[in-house]
Design goal:
The chain has eleven helices and 13 strands. The chain is of the alpha/beta class. The chain has an eight-stranded parallel beta sheet with strand order 12-11-10-9-8-7-6-13. The protein is globular and about 65 Å long. β4 and β5 form a beta hairpin. The termini are far apart.
Length: 386
């Protein structure tokens, strides 16, 4: 199709690959200059077979962080601005330590239908969240199966979250294989494009390796020190999160601890290290390591659950509250797994909610974990601006 904006052809004979079935779809993204007021966007087929079946057209205007579609005044991203790592804390534009709280998506190859205008509105206004983690699996039918589709989906979700004043964690969700170096070339391609397009935004955080496992810290460190300079060529300012050994447990799940990192930290600035916990599986040894490590290293909990380590089974809200109290006392940001209607107890919505298009607000559609997590997120934030 030829795509024209106000009579100017911005994409001549743009190809749209077939998706193979009515139930499959993909997103194509184009950049164009729009004018104030009405704009005419025209898509014209250039072949005898016609154009693709177009489900919808969305227009996002957030490349200027202070312009239309950027974080609004009074929103978490609007108040705090561009974040940076100061010592062991995550600090806002005023240099004050803050704590962000929010939700992680499930894998977008399975649950993108849970990330809609309605659900994101609810996350920002009803849940009063500060941050959305967009989890792009690399394997398991994710990014490597269709890099263009999944990159475009991340672009779209960044714009939608930005317009709602949320911070966005761009999660490179490598899990199997556990050595992040297996996906180094793919990560360079992905983060180069993401950082190049969104570097002007002040509400992003890059998580470059979700849960390294079965691999030594030296390999994780090597991966980070090869990827971070590539990202920094495009975006010198956005904080970067580095996964830790043994499923981001600071090595505890493999019998180690934070000392392997403090003795051999990643050679980069404006970075934090990630810690994941699941309260029904991870007891005092994990909690004590987290507490001790937080006094030495900048940490961000990019994933946790109130259940066991598979995100299943009974909720342990008592242990979960011990963790959250510690995180609050040390100003460690956290994100809960996960904002979907998966049948496991760790998914916040009851099965069928996403396909039904909600309802998204209130608690009637939430599992017990969802109701509890929503209550934790809705407590007042303290974002110091002086």
């Amino acid at each position: 199709m030829d795509i024209t904006v106000n009579g100017t052809n911005i994409a001549a004979a743009r190809a749209f690959a077939g998706t193979g079935a009515w139930t499959n779809w993909s997103t194509a993204t184009l950049n164009a200059t729009l004018k104030t007021g009405a704009n005419i966007i025209r898509a014209t087929a250039t072949t005898s077979n016609g154009g693709p079946n177009v489900d919808h057209l969305s227009v996002d205007t957030a490349d200027d962080p202070g312009g239309p579609g950027g974080p609004g005044a009074g929103t978490p991203a609007g108040i705090n601005g561009r974040l940076k790592v100061c010592g062991t804390k995550l600090c806002n534009q005023y240099g004050n330590p803050i704590q962000l709280r929010g939700m992680s998506s499930h894998g977008t190859q399975w649950y993108s239908q849970c990330l809609t205008s309605g659900s994101l509105d609810a996350l920002a206004t009803d849940w009063r969240a500060d941050v959305l983690r967009v989890s792009t699996y690399v394997q398991e039918g994710g990014y490597e199966s269709d890099p263009r589709r999944f990159t475009d989906l991340v672009h779209s979700l960044i714009e939608q979250a930005t317009a709602r004043g949320l911070y966005v964690i761009v999660d490179w969700h490598q899990l199997t294989p556990g050595d992040p170096n297996h996906n180094l070339a793919r990560a360079k391609t992905f983060f180069t494009e993401i950082a190049q397009r969104h570097r002007a935004k002040t509400n992003l955080i890059y998580e470059i390796a979700n849960e390294p496992n079965g691999v030594a810290w030296s390999r994780i460190k090597s991966y980070a020190e090869q990827l971070i300079p590539v990202v920094r060529q495009q975006d010198p300012n956005t904080p970067i999160l580095v996964g830790t050994r043994a499923w981001s447990s600071l090595g505890v799940s493999d019998g180690s601890d934070e000392n392997e990192i403090t003795a051999n930290p990643v050679n980069a600035t404006n970075i934090m290290y990630t810690f994941h916990f699941y309260a029904a599986s991870h007891d005092d040894e994990y909690l004590n390591t987290l507490s001790r490590a937080a006094d030495k290293l900048p940490l961000f909990v990019t994933e946790f659950g109130t259940q066991n380590s598979a995100g299943e089974g009974a909720n342990d809200f008592t242990m979960s509250k011990r963790y959250l109290d510690l995180l609050a006392s040390k100003k460690i940001s956290w994100v809960n797994w996960n904002f979907s209607d998966d049948d496991r107890s760790g998914a916040v919505f009851k099965p069928g909610t996403c396909n039904a298009g909600g309802p998204w607000t209130g608690t009637a559609q939430l599992k017990p974990a969802g109701t509890w997590i929503r209550d934790q997120i809705r407590t007042p934030d303290n974002f110091p601006t002086t």
